[in-house]
Design goal:
- This protein is an alpha/beta fold and 414 residues long.
- It contains 14 helices and twelve strands.
- The chain has an eight-stranded mixed β-sheet with strand order 5-12-11-6-7-9-8-10, sandwiched between helices. The protein has a four-stranded mixed β-sheet with strand order 1-4-2-3.
- A hairpin with a 5-residue loop joins strand 2 and strand 3.
Length: 414
């Protein structure tokens, strides 16, 4: 049926932004209105807002199909389904539409408030907590449950990020990555409040200042994984880690100043392990030799390889550990260790350059006895501290980033 456009009633709609109305009007003028809009018996618009605006611009009647609307949620479902099918929604529009549907659904099915989304953030569901709402919605709009969940989570992101998504300045995946990272930090902070910082000898701040806390002639083993000076950034996760700070030329100055600062903290007979890369080995070794005697270069064979240049270069599957001493401390392992260490790399779940606890335990066992002090002033996610605790060594950790401090606290607490 044809209806005058001014008779169509437009109520609150999910979709707020409309583009290319002029182009659509030209198409309708040339080809005619191919698809009718959808209205209810009272002339309330259900679907076809852009077509309605185009026909209003042309000043012509519009083809309309009258449907029997059973309920408010049925009306909303029709609008959602059509716009999702056409990919017409901005992600935030869809997020808000799904949130509205959730309210209506829970009004009809109050028992679903308890469970996956009832009273909780949509990130807090368990694997066994299956949402009837999510299943029903995915079926209604012809998308996966994951699609529904991800768009619902957009309702929880920061206001400024919502606006960026609306303005197409931030992708949905990027917004969710930021949100998940922030939720992780928030959770770690809550868990970290349970832990007394001084009791685990963990200090946050610039190592050049915090090293003043360490007593002279007290450290039996130093293990550090400083910035390599190669401007490294991990790209393995959707929520990418931030770039390693001070990881350019300034890293060498930082290493030099920190070793000068830590030298008097080391026992007269002590061991030093410093992780590095072949790319900067020739720059790092002379810095270490200013303060300690370099004895060897250990090779950590990670038993897999990095990405990098897949076609033009050999795959890298090792990292280097410079072994140095102050004085003449002996190795303490049950047998003489070799300088190739086979330990599978971590999944970097806690830090972009996370080292295996098993590897660090091997170094600590070879260089200390129970009760001696191990120091790591680039503590990262705390693997050295975890290894020390498991081996009943005393330890001191220094770390600049608050996010990493909270990760360390959780790992030590667990």
């Amino acid at each position: 049926m044809n209806i005058e456009t001014n008779k169509i009633i437009i109520n609150e709609r999910i979709r707020k932004e409309f583009t290319d109305i002029n182009d659509l009007a030209k198409s309708i003028k040339e080809l005619g209105q191919i698809q009718a809009i959808t209205i209810d018996k009272d002339y309330n618009l259900i679907a076809g807002h852009r077509r309605l605006l185009a026909c209003k611009e042309l000043g012509i009647d519009i083809k309309a199909e009258v449907v029997n609307v059973k309920s408010e949620i049925h009306k909303l479902d029709m609008e959602l389904a059509e716009n999702v099918k056409r990919n017409d929604f901005n992600p935030m529009e869809l997020a808000e539409g799904l949130s509205r549907r959730k309210e209506l659904y829970e009004g009809l099915h109050p028992e679903t408030k308890v469970g996956q989304f009832g009273g909780h953030s949509s990130l807090e569901k368990t694997d066994s907590d299956i949402s009837r709402f999510t299943q029903d919605t995915a079926k209604r709009i012809g998308k996966s449950e994951t699609f529904v969940k991800e768009h619902l989570q957009l309702n929880d992101i920061k206001i400024e990020d919502k606006q960026k998504v609306r303005d197409n300045k931030l992708k949905k995946s990027e917004a969710l990555a930021i949100f998940r990272k922030e939720k992780k930090i928030e959770k770690l902070k809550e868990e970290a409040n349970k832990i007394n910082q001084e009791s685990i000898n963990l200090f946050q701040g610039d190592c050049l200042k915090e090293l003043d806390r360490v007593k002279d002639n007290s450290v039996a083993c130093l293990i550090i994984d400083p910035p390599y000076g190669i401007d490294y950034q991990s790209n393995h996760k959707l929520a990418k880690y931030d770039k390693i700070k001070n990881d350019k030329e300034e890293s060498f100055e930082l290493l030099n100043k920190s070793l000068e600062k830590v030298n008097p903290k080391m026992k007269d007979d002590s061991h030093i392990y410093i992780f590095t890369s072949w790319k900067v080995y020739e720059q790092v070794k002379p810095i270490i030799e200013n303060y300690f005697v370099v004895k060897n270069c250990l090779i950590w064979n990670k038993n897999n390889w990095s990405m990098g240049d897949l076609n033009g270069n050999y795959a890298e599957k090792y990292e280097m550990i410079i072994f140095a001493t102050k004085g003449k401390r002996r190795l303490l392992g049950s047998s003489r260790p070799v300088n190739v260490l086979d330990f599978a790399r971590t999944g970097n779940s806690n830090h972009a350059t996370e080292k295996p606890v098993a590897l660090l335990k091997e170094l600590i066992k070879n260089s200390t006895v129970e009760g001696e002090l191990v120091l790591d002033y680039f503590a990262g996610s705390g693997s050295t501290l975890v290894a020390s605790k498991e081996l009943k060594r005393n330890f001191i950790g220094i770390e600049l980033e608050e996010e990493n401090i909270n990760v360390i606290k959780k790992r030590l607490y667990d």
